[in-house]
Design a protein that fits this description.
Blueprint lengths: L1 H5 L7 E3 L1 H11 L12 E4 L17 H6 L5 E3 L5 E4 L2 E11 L8 E3 L4 E6 L2 H5 L3 E7 L2 E7 L2 H12 L7 H21 L1 H12 L3 H17 L5 H10 L1
Helix pairs in contact: 5-6, 5-8, 6-7, 6-8, 6-9
Length: 235
């Protein structure tokens, strides 16, 4: 809510990660039964590649908005993440897509924000949607990735997880499975088009997508994702 009030979402910020996954419940009118446990809050921004026409005079202070919470969030060394000292599992993470600079943090002076580039992140950042979160204080309007983009991004990053992050990798698959099960039932054309789009982005994208998709099918064989996706893309 504080970041929304500061103008982060109006300036192109996007809520990503598990809280975005939870927000799709309100969009779809469903309740997820898996993949919903988290403390972290993840935000993303397209950085210098933002497609929105931002006013030249726009200047936000995202760090000041975080400090104003007075919750004890401390920036890590790169300032791309803020950690709560008394809750070490509760982070605020700021992400962007990876470009020519590789993994070097990207600073956006107009937002007073430094972001960590991640591979494949651009898929979730393109063509975001508006959604409303329900909080005790009232509704909060945020930007979310399109659900079909979010689902396939989770399959792409599955293989990027280090061995020490296997728990997060399984959560990636659980969230992708929940979304794909819904989309292949209710929004077949959109997920089929996105599946084709990702496969056409090059061999690296195809390899990671297949790796995540195969792992998801192994974990959730009863959902017959292979047959359903084949039927959707051939329609």
């Amino acid at each position: 809510e504080r970041l929304a009030d500061s103008g982060l979402f109006s300036a192109g910020g996007i809520l990503v990660g598990t809280h975005a996954f939870l927000a799709y419940q309100n969009v779809f009118g469903v309740r997820w039964s898996a993949g919903a446990a988290t403390l972290d809050l993840d935000f993303a921004h397209a950085g210098r590649n933002v497609s929105l026409a931002l006013p030249e005079h726009l200047k936000l202070d995202t760090i000041a908005a975080i400090d104003s919470l007075q919750m004890g969030f401390i920036p890590i060394q790169t300032h791309t993440s803020f950690r709560k000292a008394d809750e070490p599992d509760f982070d605020l993470d700021f992400l962007t897509s990876r470009g020519r600079a590789g993994d070097a943090p990207v600073t956006l002076a107009r937002l007073n924000l430094t972001m960590q580039p991640l591979r494949f992140m651009e898929l979730s950042l393109q063509d975001p949607m508006r959604a409303t979160l329900l909080a005790r204080s009232g509704p909060i309007v945020v930007n979310l990735p399109r659900p079909e983009r979010y689902a396939l991004h989770k399959l792409l990053v599955y293989g990027e997880r280090a061995q020490a992050q296997r728990t997060k990798a399984r959560k990636d698959l659980a969230q992708a499975a929940a979304l794909l099960d819904y989309l292949l039932t209710h929004d077949t054309a959109e997920i089929a088009a996105m599946w084709t789009d990702v496969n056409n982005r090059g061999p690296g994208w195809r390899k990671r997508l297949k790796e995540g998709f195969d792992a998801m099918n192994t974990l959730y064989p009863a959902y017959t994702f292979v047959a359903r996706m084949a039927q959707a893309t051939s329609a």
